[in-house]
Amino acid sequence: MLPIPTKKTLRFYLEDIENPIGKAFNLIIIFLILLSSAIFVAKTYSISEEVFLKLELINHLIFGFFAIEYLLRFWCAEQKIKFIFSFFSLIDLLAILPIFTDVLNISFILIIRCFLVLKLIRFLKFKIYIFNITTEDGRIFARILFTLFSIIFIFSGLIYQVEHPVNPESFKTFVDAVYFSVVTMTTVGFGDVIPISEKGRLLTVLMILTGISLIPYQLGDLIKQLIKTANKQEKVCSGCGFYCHDIDAKFCKICGTEL
What is the predicted pLDDT for the residue at 201? Predict the structure, then answer.
């Protein structure tokens, strides 16, 4: 009979990304997030009822898994109240709310399914670790890509769900919504796909404001980091692990170890 893990042990496996169990758990979560997002996109196309029902069943199983994950994290938390109102916990709770649409018949909750991608924020550090991104400018660039992906995916999902019922010719599928989001955020504005509802236009404004609030700030960090490291060389110090040194440096400026 397998021993029941303690709260401390379970919390370690949930949070640590370097041990094999923690790594496997994180990979499973990331896969399920991407799978659920792919199902969300697939359901915007014309598919048979049989395939639709199968996708819906898979989605329910995924959300059930996420609900169990949330309960496990809550059980392991030392400070329950602090956990409930923490940023990552609120994201996890928001992601599993669609489970209650069938139970409580609250159909408007379906609109937040696209927010599931925000769960990836918790695993951004893990993905940087998996892809061995060691430099600071690499980490900043990864955050910029993730921010762009999140903004486009979330607002495309929201706009599609708001506009498709009233404007199906322009917003036939999720890809039409992505096209609109990218064209809008890049300020090209072809005008061939436009929202006609008040909610759609409000979401468009929010998308633009979100983009100009988050992207330039992170690009500024990247530019500052590139300027800072322009005359540096990447050479890991055997003493302290510091990797960014002056080109002509012979000793580590942190610990004094010879390079």
Answer: 92
250-259 long-range Cβ contacts below 8 angstroms, 24+ apart: 259/235
Look up tokens 């696209």; give the residue. Answer: 114
**Which of 143, 98, 142, 91 lies closest to 119, judged by CA?**
91
C-alpha–C-alpha distance, residues 65 and 62, integer Å: 5
Q: Which amino acid is at 250?
A: K
Reduce the DSSP state of residue 187 to 3 states and report it. coil
Query: By three-state DSSP, how is residue 251 classified?
Result: strand
Question: What are the residue ranges in the chain where pLDDT is below 70?
Answer: 1-5, 98-113, 124-136, 228-234, 242-244, 247-248, 259
* Tokens found for residue 256: 């004094």
Backbone angles phi, psi at 258, to 5 degrees: -70, 135
SS3 245: strand
pTM equals: 0.75
